[in-house]
Amino acid sequence: MFELVKSGGWLMLPIILCSIFAAAVCAERFWTLRESRIAPKYTLALVWKWIKSNQLDAKKLRELKSSSPLGEILAAGLSNSKHGRELMKESIQESAARVIHEMERYLTALGTVAAIAPLLGLLGTVIGMIKVFSAIMLEGTGNTGVLAGGISEALITTAAGLTVAIPAVIFHRYFVRRVEELVVTMEQEATKLVEVIHGEREVETKGARKR
């Protein structure tokens, strides 16, 4: 493997660094974007139980805010629920914007890796072919070892760049879709909260855990 990397030339170093970064981002996002962490089930039902039992106070709001991103959004709405429906919705939207920004962390960088990795491979191809033609100009076509080295460098860097880029593109699109799904879930829960607070619906409390 080391000999293969060495044969690819100096451009293999940034390609390898891109692969390490992409793998780290994917692992971190898989752990972070879990539904159980972002939008735990029964969060809204638990909040409704607190409201019905008159347990919702500043301490409970702090507990809710720190429990999950969904809890942070609901806490923002509850903190301004007495100031009217519109202000409550604005507070939820502001909090949701911060939460979504946090959920999208590193995704732009992952997309950048997916874009530049094949370009690095292409650059390696160009450099390898330049070496081939330079060798032809200096030594003619008789020195097959020199020609093979340049062609090998070109092919190795191209393959390495594509090997990094293809999974990066797949996981980038997966995480973008994952964020969209979680955002829809949180929007639905926040809408239910607004309707519950203003007496437009009831919340199913079955399964809510006591805290």
Helix-strand blueprint:
Layout: H1 2-7, H2 12-32, H3 35-38, H4 43-52, H5 58-67, H6 69-79, H7 85-103, H8 107-139, H9 144-197
Helix pairs in contact: 2-8, 2-9, 5-6, 6-7, 6-9, 7-9, 8-9
Task: Give a structural overview.
The protein contains nine helices and no strands. The chain has 211 residues and is mainly α. It has helices at 2-7, 12-32, 35-38, 43-52, 58-67, 69-79, 85-103, 107-139, 144-197. It is rod-shaped. Helices cover 80% and strands 0% of the residues. The longest helix has 54 residues, at 144-197. Helix 2 runs parallel beside helix 9 (144-197) and helix 6 (69-79) runs parallel beside helix 9. The protein starts with a helix and ends in a 14-residue tail after the last helix.
Looking at this protein, list some descriptive labels.
mainly alpha; disordered C terminus; single chain; 80% helix; 211 residues
Distance between the termini: 54 Å
Structural class: mainly alpha
**Count of beta strands:** 0
Our Rg estimate from Cα atoms comes to: 27 Å
Fraction in helix: over 70%
Percent in strands: under 5%
Summarize the main sheet.
none
Low-confidence stretches: 205-211
- What oligomeric state best describes the polypeptide chains here? single chain
Query: What is the overall shape?
Result: rod-shaped
Secondary-structure element order, N to C = HHHHHHHHH
Mean pLDDT equals 84
Counted by DSSP, the helix tally is 9
